[in-house]
Amino acid sequence: MAYKLNVTEHANELLDNLVYHLIYRLKNEQAAEHLLDSIDVIYDRLEVNPFQFSECRDAYLAKKGYREAVVPQMNYIIIFDVRADVVNVVGIFHQLENYPNKL
């Protein structure tokens, strides 16, 4: 079964902020490119089988049905839920952020 990927405007804004931070504040364009490439791979995997990723570690978000995908070799996570055949990406965060309060 193929899933439709819906990346919310909020998630896109969060990603833009992360990339901006990596490029302009940390002066690390390579890390920004790696983040974007890794997210593209995860998005492709979400369209195939979103259930390959675990439920959120945060108990409240898990109870609400949210799952998380960890960006390999980086400390970022993608938070999403699955409704019927649609995967809704609702946020992209650094793991040290208090992301449950930002959704």
From TrEMBL:
Q: Name the Pfam families for this protein.
A: ParE_toxin
Tell me the keywords, alphabetical order.
Toxin-antitoxin system
**Name this protein carries in UniProt:** Toxin-antitoxin system toxin component RelE family
